[in-house]
């Protein structure tokens, strides 16, 4: 999977304003709607929140990967948001998050979804990559860090 085909400078937003899990998810959905990646915002919201109710997508090291599957999605879509302020996301390590990667994928296609999650998880295991992302001043810098 090539992250450059899924994540673009237009699907990266710095300085998220949300202070709660729901506000962050709303901002991430706004990115996907504004870039035309999703058309039915309410259905996308439901898919992500259904997944969150089963188990939080707050991981470790300040990263959350809210995601969901929906019949309205035909190809995997994703976006990234960075917050200046840590947000409680019910993470596995109980630490707040600042890096948020949202992905939505079709119900019937499991492969791309799992591959994306695995690739993102591997990428963010590096504390140096996480630091570079958090110190980025532009979407282009985030994209470069993700894809180099």
Description of the structure:
The protein has 148 residues and is α/β, with parallel strands linked by helices. The protein contains six helices and five strands, in the order H-E-H-H-E-E-E-E-H-H-H. Strands 1, 2, 3, 4 and 5 form a five-stranded mixed beta sheet that branches. Helix 2 packs antiparallel against helix 3 and helix 5 runs antiparallel to helix 6.
Structure keywords:
single chain, 148 residues, alpha/beta, 5 strands, globular
Count of DSSP helices?
Answer: 6
Determine Rg (CA atoms, Å): 14 Å
What oligomerization state is this entry in?
single chain
Average pLDDT reading:
91
Short description:
It contains 6 helices and 5 strands.
Annotate the secondary structure layout.
Blueprint: H1 3-6, E1 12-16, H2 21-34, H3 41-54, E2 63-64, E3 67-70, E4 77-87, E5 97-106, H4 111-123, H5 127-135, H6 139-147
Parallel strand pairs: 1-4, 2-5, 3-5
Antiparallel strand pairs: 4-5
């Amino acid at each position: 999977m090539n992250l450059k085909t899924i994540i673009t400078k237009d699907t990266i937003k710095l300085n998220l304003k949300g202070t709660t899990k729901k506000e962050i998810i709303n901002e991430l959905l706004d990115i996907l709607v504004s870039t035309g990646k999703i058309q039915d915002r309410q259905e996308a919201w439901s898919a992500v929140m259904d997944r969150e109710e089963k188990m939080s997508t707050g991981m470790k090291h300040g990263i959350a990967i809210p995601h969901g599957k929906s019949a309205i999605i035909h190809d995997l879509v994703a976006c990234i948001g960075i917050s200046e302020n840590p947000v409680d996301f019910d993470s596995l390590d109980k630490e707040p998050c600042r890096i948020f990667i949202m992905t939505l994928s079709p119900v019937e296609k499991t492969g791309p979804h799992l591959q994306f999650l695995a690739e993102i998880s591997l990428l963010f295991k590096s504390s140096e990559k996480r630091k570079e992302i958090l110190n980025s001043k532009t979407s282009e810098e985030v994209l470069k860090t993700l894809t180099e």
